[in-house]
Amino acid sequence: MFLLFSDDEQMNFQINRALMSVLSEPALPSQTDENARTLADQNARTLAEITAAASKITDMESWSATWWAAAEKARTEQRFKHAAAYYRMAEFYLPDTSVRKEECLQSA
Question: Structure pTM?
Answer without folding.
Answer: 0.85
